[in-house]
Fold this sequence. Notes:
alpha+beta, 2 domains, 6 strands, 5 helices, three-stranded antiparallel β-sheet
Amino acid sequence: xxxxxxxxxxTQVAETRDSDEGFTRRRRRCTQCERRFTTYERPDIAxxxxxxxxxxxxxxxxxxxxxxMMLALRKRPVSVEQVDAAMERIQEKLxxxxxxxxxxxxxxxxxxxxxxxxxxxxxxxxxxVYRSFEDVDEFRQLIRDI
Length: 146
C-alpha cells in the first residue's frame, strides 16, 4: 500500500477490524514518514450483466431494480427492511447462479417471486406491467392464481 502523504511503497498494518457492512478497516503506518492512515477493503463481486429483450447488455443496477419494486409497492404497508431483504435475496440468487449474464425475463421472475412473498397487490401491479397483458382475461387468470 502506497502512503498517501509521502508516496512511499512500504506501510505496516497496525490494526485490522472487520465491519458488519462487509468491509475490512485497516490502520496503517508508513515506514518512512511514520504517519498513520486508514484504508477500507471490500470484496469486488461482479454481478452478472443484464441482457435486455432487444439483445443489448447493461450492467446490473440495484438502484433500478429497487426503483421498480418501490413503484409496485407505492402506498402499500411494506417496510424498508422487507424491501432490503427481498433485494438481498435477489442478488444472492444472481450471485449463486454463477452466470455472467442474466436475461431480463429471469430478473423479472425473481422480482415477481419476491413481491408475491411480501405483498400480493404489488405483485399484481408489477406482473401487469411486466407481462404486458393483452386482455382482461389474462389479468383475471393471474388474480385467480393468487
